[in-house]
Write a structure and sequence with these properties.
The chain is mostly helical and 79 residues long. It has one domain. It has 3 helices and no strands. It is elongated.
Length: 79
């Protein structure tokens, strides 16, 4: 995931993605220990993406004025 794309997302979406990555990291490390060496490249890339997300979240904590505004959710029309 590119850093520009990460910066466009709001903080709640970034936190959700980070939690998903944490769980996926656990699964990939488990697969690596079981001898599946093809996951090493995925693991490294995912760790970098997770670090980018955590960096953006920390930057928004320190400088909330630069964070993008969350988009309002669209309401569904009832039938």
């Amino acid at each position: 995931m590119r850093a520009e794309k990460i910066r466009e997302l709001d903080s709640t979406e970034l936190r959700r993605q980070e939690a998903d990555m944490r769980e996926q990291d656990f699964r990939l490390r488990f697969q690596l220990r079981m001898g599946q060496t093809d996951v090493l490249k995925k693991l490294r890339g995912m760790r970098r993406d997770r670090a980018r997300i955590l960096t953006v979240l920390r930057d928004r904590e320190l400088h909330p004025e630069t964070a993008p505004e969350p988009e309002p959710k669209k309401k569904k029309k009832g039938k």
